[in-house]
Design brief:
With about 300 residues, this protein is an alpha/beta fold. The strands form three sheets. The chain has a six-stranded mixed β-sheet, with helices on both faces. The chain has a four-stranded antiparallel β-sheet with strand order 2-1-4-5, with helices on one face. Strands 11-12 form a two-stranded antiparallel sheet. The chain starts with 6 loop residues before the first strand and ends in a 5-residue tail after the last strand. The chain binds adenosine-5'-triphosphate. The site of adenosine-5'-triphosphate has 11 residues, from α1. GO terms for molecular function: ATP binding.
């Protein structure tokens, strides 16, 4: 597992047709660190991430520096993955072919990424699926993506992303479209896959409560500018930007009576997400009886 790269974005500026969209964005992710990139809709989170991943289209003008372990990388690169980085996005449906069984999608992809044969790829895929919370990987591998819930699909995408043993995993709003239970499962899977001694995480979200549950540092964007950056605890305690203060207040307002800060590492006053529980296996839009991950 590679886990030693420091990723630094300096003075990132992005514009399109002469219109500036990002203004001198600075971002640092240390090895094994989990950093939340937070901001309202349209604040520039996706543009930042796409620039980092080398995925911005030619219509965008990109300036600034990108360094991985002190080595400067170009903003644009030949098609393909940025070395040392992997990503999961909000739309897990688009990432997987809905009509092809998962084993036929995952095994070749993992064999390619690990440069290994079919038997070893099968072992690795099973291990990755367990790591993202599936107790019965075989059952998942024999399903089609359309039979899985959104949260399950997202965890499959995460397993695939982790097959490359990235230095940095970029997770662009992976929990946004999910219910609370699925959200919790994805967050737990991200927690298991990243952290000290493992891949670093850049977690893009507009949900401060989820970010606080998972990340130890935060960068807040507003209208294409970084308005706050620092350790999560410190920012929660004393936000400097009015926008961040409003986010903290909104997260605290979501507090439910049963909320208990002592539940794992939840920050004081921020709402917890509910206990994990496996959602059902679907056929088409109709749930079937046996939950995935249960013994078959
Ligand atoms: N191709 C484009 N042409 C012009 N403006 C764009 C383009 N893509 C993004 N923008 C603008 O850049 C700004 C930042 O967009 P971005 O998608 O990065 O925001 P975001 O924080 O990821 O929002 P969301 O949470 O809704 O995904 C927005 O004002 C958006 O309208």
């Amino acid at each position: 597992m590679r886990s030693a790269a420091r990723v630094e974005v300096g003075d990132l500026e992005v514009s399109v047709a002469g219109q500036p969209l990002l203004h001198r964005v600075d971002l640092r992710v240390q090895p094994g660190q989990r950093v939340a990139l937070l901001g309202a809709s349209g604040s520039g989170k996706s543009l930042t991430v796409l620039a980092l991943l080398g995925l911005l289209g030619p219509q965008f003008r990109v300036q600034g520096t990108l360094r991985v372990d002190g080595r400067e990388l170009p903003w644009r690169q030949a098609p393909g993955r940025r070395p040392g980085m992997a990503a999961v996005f909000q739309d897990s449906q688009a990432a997987l072919n809905p009509v092809v069984r998962l084993d036929r999608q995952l095994l070749p992809a993992v064999a390619r990424r690990r440069r290994t044969g079919a038997a070893e790829a099968g072992r690795v895929v099973a291990e990755l699926l367990r790591e993202v919370g599936f107790e019965d990987p075989e059952r998942i591998l024999h399903a089609h993506p359309s039979q899985l819930s959104g949260g399950q699909r997202q965890r499959v995408c995460l397993a695939l992303a982790m097959a490359a043993s990235p230095d940095l995993l970029v997770a662009d709003e992976p929990t946004t479209a999910l219910d609370m239970i699925s959200q919790r499962q994805v967050v737990e899977a991200l927690r298991r896959c990243t952290g000290p001694g493992r891949s670093a995480l850049l977690f893009i979200t507009h949900d401060l409560a989820v970010a606080a549950d998972l990340c130890d540092a935060v960068v807040v964007l507003e209208q294409g500018r970084v308005v706050e950056a620092g350790p999560m605890q410190q920012v929660l305690r004393s936000p400097r930007a009015a926008f961040t203060a409003a986010l903290v207040a909104a997260a605290r307002a979501g507090l439910r009576p049963a909320a208990a800060p002592q539940e794992r590492n939840l920050r004081p006053g921020l709402r917890p997400v509910v206990a994990p529980q496996e959602p059902e296996l679907r056929t088409g839009s109709r749930p079937v009886a046996a939950p995935l991950g249960a013994a078959s």
